[in-house]
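Q: What residues go here?
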């Protein structure tokens, strides 16, 4: 069911947003990893999910589907896990740790909300904490484009970043925040990369 659903959503996405993916070779064929991208539009997570061959799970705000039956079905099929953005969501953390243990891919937006950096929001440190705790790599992704219909969107995937050396520092909030800020800087570099910008005009 999931693959059929993904197939039809991919057709829609390709027609409407003409996505181009750069750096697919940086996604491991197997094993756990955390994908971290900038958040510009409600459809950027969907675009990343459907344009990659491997199953990608994603943490999304719990208000997105309001707990409806259709919403819960969509979440299950699409691999979406609700998260409470207003508090420390232990459930989301447990889910993330379980996904890493099961050698899966998890997509997280460190901005916490769409265009969070532009709005002056503090970068969330959850992704680097999970990466350090589970010794999982983080793969930064820069999303370029406006997501206006029939205008190209670029997904620029960077090389994995290793956080294994910080396993004993996960309780150091300042260090985790520093690493989160550095990660966001790398994501922004990928977002503003010239290769991606050229692809937008193709």
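A:
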């Amino acid at each position: 069911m999931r693959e059929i659903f993904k197939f039809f959503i991919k057709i829609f996405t390709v027609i409407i947003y003409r996505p181009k993916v750069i750096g697919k070779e940086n996604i491991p064929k197997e094993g756990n990893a955390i994908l971290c991208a900038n958040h510009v539009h409600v459809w950027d997570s969907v675009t990343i999910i459907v344009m990659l061959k491997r199953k990608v799970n994603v943490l999304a705000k719990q208000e997105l589907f309001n707990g409806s039956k259709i919403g819960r079905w969509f979440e299950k099929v699409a691999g979406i896990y609700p998260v409470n953005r207003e508090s420390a969501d232990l459930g989301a953390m447990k889910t993330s740790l379980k996904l890493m243990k099961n050698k899966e891919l998890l997509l997280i937006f460190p901005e916490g909300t769409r265009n969070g950096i532009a709005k002056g929001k503090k970068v969330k440190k959850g992704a680097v904490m999970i990466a350090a705790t589970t010794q999982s790599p983080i793969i930064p992704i820069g999303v370029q484009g406006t997501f206006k219909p029939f205008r190209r969107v670029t997904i620029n995937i960077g090389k994995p970043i290793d956080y294994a050396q910080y396993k004993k520092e996960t309780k150091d909030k300042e260090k985790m925040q520093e690493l989160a800020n550095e990660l966001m800087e790398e994501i922004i570099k990928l977002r503003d990369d010239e290769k991606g910008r050229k692809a937008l005009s193709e």
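A: Context that may help when evaluating the design: The longest strand covers residues 138-144. Residues 125 and 176 are 6 Å apart (CA to CA).
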